Amino acid sequence: MDWSKNQIKEFQQDLLSWYDDNKKPLPWRKTTEPYKIWISEIMSQQTQVETVMPYYERFMKKYPTIETLAQADDAELLKLWEGLGYYSRARNLKIAAQEVVDKYNGKFPDNLADILSLKGIGPYTAAAIASISFGLAEPAIDGNLMRVTSRLFELDCDISKSSSRKIFDGYLRKLISKKRPGDFNQALMDLGSLVCSPKSPKCEACPLLNYCAAAASGKQLNYPVKTKKIKQKDLYFTAFALENSLGEYYLEKRPSKGLLADMWTFPLTELPAADFEKMITDGSVSKNIVIPELPESISKMEYIANFTHIFSHQKWNLAIIKLKPEETFEVADELLSEDKMWVHFDSKVLTENGQPKVSRSQIPLAGPQVKMFEILDKKNKKIDLLK
DNA sequence: AATGCGGGGTG
DNA sequence: CACCCAGCATT
């Protein structure tokens, strides 16, 4: 960051005067009492201020001091927290209150390290209390500050990674007002929620417009950089291993559209999670399994093994079911077509007229299928050794 | 570094 | 419905 001292000074003034005119009228902004700031900050974690306000008022009425909180009835405290979520916050509050009473003689610690040591207080909350209640120049880095800062300087670091925190800390430590650090932090929080919002930032109304690199280049929406935290959807399949008398496996070609288009796969059928869990637990083959249309009649099914495969957006849980045909049988060519075939493990096997048979190394296999072949390989080798 | 933990709002 | 949000403790 190459801003001059004068520039930083003007930046602080522009931000703070905006805050003085536009700050949200929150009940805990009428005080700097550490106890009240602490409670408000804990309640505000991952929670909208509008949701927090009634809880805050009730909390302060019931537990007006840190001593009353330290002696709170667990059930009553939890009851008061009911509906706010993240209930360990309430449990930790009481533990921390007891710590303050026992270790600090009931006086809330006034330095960052001691504040940070309290149960339930992490880097963000510690800095918020330190700056608001004790005037310490500690940047309280939350999602808002990271968003605003990443736009100001077009920072490309991924805010979802914990290692990015120190980068934001570096910038904000240079920018923070030493005279009004608490207001500085809260100003950036309000700015982040009122003006510098994630989807539709109101740059024309922003007091920091002239300082903002992203606004200058029109790339506001490119920031902050955040890797999508995709919750993969769990899907459950049975994968059928049907082997013929030549040691080949029956594969099908997937549809030409969608996931793993045109790749080859063992026949798959989806099944409910509960059935899957039961099968891999006790080896019982679910009665609900839908057996795919196969070229031979099946006499028995046997659970072999299970494995998983992660896609970007899906997690496949597969259970291998070995299908055991009646005695021996030959390849029924007339039942095969362009999207169904028998595939051998290797390419050295020849057909009757001397042509190499189709091997698994010649066709595009979906990721899970490669894993499945490996598992089947191992099983077969194990069986060979036993012979 | 990754995961679990609630609930409400938004587009 | 998918994504977002004033985080922290635990592993």
From TrEMBL:
Cofactor(s) annotated in UniProt: [4Fe-4S] cluster
Gene3D superfamilies assigned to the protein according to its UniProt record, in alphabetical order: Helix-hairpin-Helix base-excision DNA repair enzymes (C-terminal), Hypothetical protein, domain 2, Nucleoside Triphosphate Pyrophosphohydrolase
EC number: 3.2.2.31
Reaction equations catalysed: Hydrolyzes free adenine bases from 7,8-dihydro-8-oxoguanine:adenine mismatched double-stranded DNA, leaving an apurinic site
Biological-process GO terms, alphabetical: base-excision repair; mismatch repair
GO molecular function terms noted in the UniProt entry: 4 iron, 4 sulfur cluster binding; 8-oxo-7,8-dihydroguanine DNA N-glycosylase activity; adenine/guanine mispair binding; metal ion binding; oxidized purine DNA binding; purine-specific mismatch base pair DNA N-glycosylase activity
Pfam family, one: HhH-GPD
Textual note on the cofactor: Binds 1 [4Fe-4S] cluster.
Classification via SMART domains: ENDO3c (SM00478), FES (SM00525)
Class of the enzyme per the UniProt entry, highest EC level: hydrolase
Stated family: Belongs to the Nth/MutY family.
Function: Adenine glycosylase active on G-A mispairs. MutY also corrects error-prone DNA synthesis past GO lesions which are due to the oxidatively damaged form of guanine: 7,8-dihydro-8-oxoguanine (8-oxo-dGTP).
Protein name: Adenine DNA glycosylase
The species this protein was found in: Lactococcus lactis subsp. lactis bv. diacetylactis
